[in-house]
Amino acid sequence: RKTPMWPTRQQLYACLEQADSNSMARWFDYSLTGLILFNVLAVVLASEANIYQRFSTAFDYFELFSISIFTVEYILRVWLIPQSPQKKYHHPLRGRLRYLLTPMAFIDLLSILPFYLGTLLGIGDFRILLSLRLLRLFKLTRHSQAMTLLIRVIQQEAAALSSAILVLCLLILLAAAGMYLVESQQQPEEFGSILRALWWS
């Protein structure tokens, strides 16, 4: 029996979604993780005007390379989702639509959307587009066990975290009100209102 020249859809799905299934899947997972981290580093470096001006061509080519990889990955995940063990994704149309509404698919879309919005709609603010590229960091939730564990903990402890955030917001507001009362006369430009004091707080 001949071995097929091209991988089957099930093999491709395993490569994309089951990182521990074989060596090829692990290599693919590590490569995407590295690409995401290099993208974050590129965003940080490109925010420095002198560095970006000096290496602008390299930054632009790297962005085109990255967006090509992430776009192909996104399309493949949508195309291959009917191969999932979960029955809700088995229908060719409804399964793919369900997948598109999942948080992971939304994160994958957000990682490529800024580029296409900037290109198609002519968004010219470089700082906005550069900052939006940092959304690719969230793609690590698919490839990093630590990030996956963090999300699970946040989901399980949502009530406790919400209470802690509420207390934190109250403390910030009280600190801002206190600085407004104490410093508004001496430093009206910085603490002339509670809203201004909130920035310090």
Q: What is the succession of H and E elements?
A: HHHHHHHHHHHH
Biggest pleated-sheet summary = none
Shape: extended
Strand proportion: under 5%
Mean pLDDT: 83
Helix content: over 70%
Query: Helix/strand/pairing class, anyone?
Result: mainly alpha
Instruction: Output the radius of gyration.
Output: 23 Å
| First-to-last CA distance | 71 Å
SS elements, strand count: 0
Tally of separate helices: 12
Which residues form runs of ≥5 with pLDDT under 50?
none
Protein architecture, described:
- Helix content is 74%, strand content 0%.
- The chain contains 12 helices and no strands.
- Helix 2 (23-46) packs antiparallel against helix 4 (56-80), helix 4 (56-80) packs across helix 6 and helix 10 packs across helix 12 (194-200).
- The chain is extended.
- The model has no long low-confidence stretch (mean pLDDT 83).
Question: What's a concise summary of this model?
Answer:
With 201 residues, this protein is mainly α. The protein contains 12 helices and no strands. It is extended.
